[in-house]
Amino acid sequence: MFLRSSEELAVNKLLILYILDKMEIPLTNSQITQVIMENEFVDYFSLQQFISELVQSNFIKILNEEGKDYYSLTEKSIEALEYFISRIPEDMKEKIDKYVLENKENILKETQIKSNFYKKGPDEFVVNLKVIEKHIELINIDLNVPSNKQAKLICDNWKKNAPDIYGEIIQLLIKKP
Fold first, then answer.
1. According to its UniProt record, what is one Pfam family this protein matches (predicted)?
2. Tell me: the pLDDT tens digits for 34-91?
């Protein structure tokens, strides 16, 4: 077992804050883990410890939406990041910036487009569809459908096409007769 320097520990924690800042949306633990692991910054267990320590010291807060935990920056972390950002090596920041540029749209869809369904009766399923932007529900629709198959199809299509569907609904609703 080797010990890491306090500078290295600080950089790794700053890196987590930097990722949350660059994504501009709360992220799940698995999303943060994916960014860190794909870029091979730290090992999984150290990352989990850093996240836990950042939560305990109020540098990141946990938001729970629909049973899922999302991590978000606090005022304290924003100030710390502004003050200490120069401690993150440029090559690490460049890797994160590139990752965000290439993956942000998919992560946004994962985080802001929600669909699920449940069985209400023998031949009745309720499908819930949402688009959330910056913690504001732009649209929230509940549909009753007769089959599990239709409910799954609607959820899948919503995940793939929500921005277009939402745009069409708005256009239809604001169209003058």
1. DUF4364
2. 899 888 888 899 899 999 999 999 999 998 776 678 899 999 999 999 999 999 999 9
Distance CA 162, CA 127 (A): 14
6-88 is a CATH 1.10.10.10 domain: yes
CATH match for 112-174 among 2.30.230, 3.30.160, 3.40.1000, 1.10.3470: 3.30.160
Q: Where are the beta strands (DSSP E) in 3-156?
A: 60-65, 68-73, 113-121, 124-133, 136-145
Query: Looking at the chain, which residues constitute the CATH 3.30.160 domain(s)?
Result: 112-174
Rounded to whole angstroms, how far apart are CA atoms 20 and 26? 7
Do residues 145 and 127 make contact, with C-beta atoms less than 8 angstroms apart? Answer: yes
